[in-house]
Design a protein that fits this description.
The chain has five helices and nine strands. It has helices at residues 43-54, 56-61, 74-84, 97-101, 143-148; strands at residues 13-15, 21-23, 31-36, 64-70, 89-92, 105-110, 113-118, 121-125, 131-135. It has a five-stranded mixed sheet with strand order 5-4-3-8-9. It has a two-stranded antiparallel sheet with strand order 1-2. The chain has a two-stranded antiparallel ribbon with strand order 6-7. The two termini are 25 Å apart. The mean pLDDT is 94.
Length: 150
């Protein structure tokens, strides 16, 4: 069960696609879109990332910084960003630190098989580090509109 709105967001310190450590605490004063997704280069995850890419200027204009998190490696993130020309950072969480802290690691059913995995979930975090919104039913092809409340 993902964290609830109104709660402080857990700290996040993870490497981005270039291996540089990103500490979200350093972005206090800005709104953050933190989207968790299962895996780079899968159809739904690619659709979601490309929707955010295509609407990135509008998200920035609305005051949002965008970060994606999955269990993929730094190298896999770098390749995914290059392949789809993504303008935002992807944070590598192979040890599931942030994924578990935000409570998006759970039993899932895919094609009839149960397995542990990342629940596609987006957190909107306000300027003070408080969870402002939790989007659990992500519509990948229209995710930016969900974030901006349209």
């Amino acid at each position: 069960m993902p964290l609830k709105k109104g709660k402080p967001a857990p700290p996040v310190q993870l490497p981005d696609q270039s291996g540089k450590l990103v500490d979200l605490e350093k972005f206090r004063g800005k709104k953050i879109v933190l989207y968790f997704y299962p895996q780079d280069n899968t159809p739904t995850c690619t659709e979601e990332a490309c929707n955010l890419r295509d609407n990135y200027k509008a998200l920035m204009k609305a005051g949002y910084m965008v970060f994606g998190i999955s269990p993929d490696s730094v190298k896999k993130h770098a390749n995914f960003i290059a392949k789809f020309n993504l303008p935002f950072s992807l944070l590598a969480d192979p040890e599931l630190k942030a994924i578990k802290a935000f409570k998006v690691w759970a039993m899932k059913k895919t094609f009839g098989h149960e397995h542990m995995g990342v629940l596609r979930t987006t957190y909107i975090i306000d300027e003070n580090g408080i969870i402002e919104e939790v989007i659990e039913k992500v519509v990948s092809k229209d995710h930016a509109s969900q974030i901006m409340g349209k």
